[in-house]
Write a structure and sequence with these properties.
Helices cover 20% and strands 26% of the residues. The chain contains eight helices and 28 strands. α3 packs antiparallel against α5. It is of the alpha/beta class.
Length: 370
């Protein structure tokens, strides 16, 4: 069942940088949970809600994101009408020299004008959760607000990039604070808002007329004094990715059965790009416990409390503990990894020992040889 809303996902978030993980790709394209990218969760939420038109804004480093999304077929968005639209920057735009969450305002305006849905759901790319948006949209309509924003009562425990909301008893947002030293409440924005398409067009046109080419969820929330903004609390399982420690912690939370159940099993499915791989081969001397092992791996060593993506090889007499090993990485004989994040296509030479901490995991960039 389709709903009268279109979606817009901001693939970059200039307030959040994940070092080596975000250096070759947009935030939304960072691998997560063994076989997914971060964007898969928000995109699946929109599709499962009946949103048939979704735009994805990529400010820079969008090659990996475009390769992952393709035509949108994995999310049933490869349509003759509506479907998935990728909006990379600097195309037919006179404002390519300016900085901001999104520079190609002309392309953004065209996207809104060419679609006739009544509402627009706008979302950042640092949130992992599984929920349909139909109730959120209904509560927005009944509130009579100009904008509605989802929030959770988790404060800034996931890092310093939190947007704290001051909300009164009627649910109206009265204050918006960015990473405050002394938060006024524990209500932290999820970076997901809904507003009328016509209102959004007016706001974007007004910004362009004033020479302001910045477009972001936070920029719209800053207008709480002139617009009526309504806060809607989300009480389900939520993982925030604000920095390297929170990315590591969010991944390790997936080892908890309750978290896995609420993210993957108790709600609608999370879709991703399909890749055909052979089943994982476990050697005769492997020792694997409390770990996620994706397809196509070869395990001859010890893997404990870790997340292994597709095509990872762990050679004999090697030990991987509390670590995240991304696609097609090779761990040679006699290696010891503890609290390590390996990006794609890495190789660890024999006998290497890398030990980090949960707050400061060792991060090895894409394609590195150690």
């Amino acid at each position: 069942m389709f709903i009268k809303a279109m979606g817009l996902i901001l693939a970059d978030y200039k307030r959040i940088q994940l070092g080596e993980l975000s250096r070759p790709r947009a935030l939304a394209a960072i691998p997560f949970a063994g076989r997914y990218r971060i964007i898969d969760f928000m995109l699946s939420n929109m599709v499962n809600s009946g949103i048939a038109t979704v735009g994805v804004i990529a400010l820079h480093k969008y090659k990996s994101l475009m390769d992952h999304l393709g035509t949108g077929a994995s999310w049933d968005l490869d349509r003759k009408k509506q479907g998935l639209s990728l909006l990379p920057p600097y195309i037919n735009s006179p404002n390519g020299e300016r900085s901001g969450e999104f520079n190609d305002m002309a392309g953004l305006l065209d996207f809104f004008r060419n679609n006739r849905q009544r509402y627009v759901v706008i979302a950042n790319s640092n949130i992992v959760y599984n929920a349909q948006m139909n109730d959120f949209l209904s509560r927005h309509e009944s509130s009579g607000a100009d904008i509605s924003v989802l929030y959770a009562r988790d404060g800034q425990k996931h890092g310093s990039s939190g947007v704290i909301l001051g909300v009164d008893r009627k649910g109206q947002v009265k204050d918006v604070l960015f990473s405050p030293d002394k938060p006024v409440s524990s209500r932290c924005s999820m970076g997901v808002i809904v507003l009328a398409r016509e209102l959004l067009l007016d706001l974007v046109n007004e910004n362009v007329a004033r020479g302001d080419y910045d477009f972001s969820v936070e920029g719209l929330l800053r207008r709480y004094q002139e617009l009526r903004i309504h806060g809607v609390e989300y009480k389900g399982t939520l993982l925030r990715i604000n920095n390297i420690p929170s990315y590591f912690a969010s991944t390790m939370q997936l080892m908890d059965e309750k978290t896995r159940r609420e993210l993957f099993w108790s709600g609608p499915p999370i879709y991703t790009k399909v890749k055909d791989e052979a089943p994982t081969l476990y050697g005769p001397k492997n020792k694997v416990s409390n770990s996620f092992i994706s397809d196509g791996c070869l395990i001859n060593g010890t893997v404990t409390d870790s997340m292994l993506f597709r095509g990872v090889t762990v050679a004999g007499s090697s030990s991987v503990k509390n670590s995240i090993i991304m696609q097609d990485s090779y761990i040679s004989e006699g290696v010891e990894l503890d609290h390590v994040i390996l990006d794609k296509n890495c190789m660890i030479r024999p006998g290497i020992k890398l030990v980090g901490h949960k707050e400061f995991p060792v991060v090895i960039g894409k394609g590195a040889i150690v």
